Amino acid sequence: MEYLFQQVAQFAFEQELATKRDYLVSTETIFEIIPKIRPSLTDEIIEQFEKDSITYSRV
Questions:
Q1: What whole-number distance in Å separates Cα of residue 15 and Cα of residue 11?
Q2: What is the rounded CA–CA span in Å between residue 9 and residue 46?
């Protein structure tokens, strides 16, 4: 999440620099940036976590 908002802030800064006007960050801005962010967890790590959760969880 932190990295996402760093990227949103960078995007807003670049927009202000380009247009010389204030840029209002909106939900649409965030949705525009999200696809450009790579996940920090691989599918293998997620799969292993799910297996471990089942194996080691208390019932």
A1: 6
A2: 29
Sequence letter at residue 3: Y
DSSP string, the chain: -HHHHHHHHHHHHHHHHHHSS-----HHHHHHHGGGSPPSS-HHHHHHHHHHHHHH---
CA–CA separation, 36 and 27 (whole Å): 15
Domain count, the chain: 1
pLDDT digits (tens, 9 = 90+) for 32-55: 999 999 888 999 999 999 999 999
- For residue 33, the Cα-to-chain-centroid distance in whole angstroms is 8
